[in-house]
Design a protein that fits this description.
Nucleotidyltransferase, domain 5; globular
């Protein structure tokens, strides 16, 4: 079987296809006469994930359904755009309302958010923290588990390269979803977080 990168292997697993056999664990097992242990195969993630890319003025939302044996399906996506003329409180309310609308009656199993790793100043950190809080609060009121992933991990899981650009991420996400319409960058990032969660989920 041809060599596959990490993203291709996860995509194959989700589609129920064969992947290369697990590599024996490194170390001195041969020297001690012990047999190498194989990595236990895991069942593909199944269910609906809401991916969120938080931002005060442009939060990306993407609802994706995962099932064994078929390609992930993008059910719905949106960028929550709030004009600068509106107050921060109004923007947070819009984010909360939008996330609540995505969670109501859609059978969401998990919510996945992109973590904020680097910010330029304390004011930016406060704004991003507030936007994240509005989204997380909506999930909490629906009693849903929330998972957070750093941008580097999302890009590695989806694109296979931690330094991928937003444009590369958008193209890869659309290819994985078989989506014809070009996604807005914030929506593609939200979908990427949901894909990362499904690709790397452990029971």
């Amino acid at each position: 079987m041809a060599r596959m990168n990490v993203r291709q292997m996860w995509a194959a697993k989700l589609a129920g296809k064969a992947v290369p056999a697990a590599v024996a664990l490194p170390g001195n097992a041969a020297e001690t006469g012990q047999q190498s242990l194989a990595v236990k195969p895991r069942a593909p993630f199944a269910g609906v994930v809401l991916g969120i890319d938080p931002s005060l003025r442009g939060t990306g939302l993407a609802l994706i359904e995962f099932a064994a044996g078929r390609q992930p399906v993008l059910l719905r996506c949106q960028t929550v755009k709030v004009p600068p003329k509106h107050s921060m409180a109004m923007a947070l309310g819009e984010i909360h309302r939008a996330v609540t609308a995505f969670l109501t009656g859609t059978g969401v199993r998990h919510v996945a958010l992109e973590q904020t790793i680097y910010v330029q100043n304390i004011r930016t950190a406060q704004i991003l923290g507030a936007a994240r809080g509005a989204a997380i609060a909506a999930a909490a009121l629906h009693d849903l588990p929330v998972f957070e992933y750093p941008p580097l991990r999302v890009k590695q899981a989806v694109v296979g390269a931690g330094r991928a650009s937003k444009e590369q991420m958008a193209r890869t996400v659309m290819a994985l979803l078989g989506h014809g319409r070009t996604l807005a960058l914030d929506e593609a990032d939200a979908a990427g977080v949901a894909l990362c969660h499904a690709f790397t989920w452990r029971e």
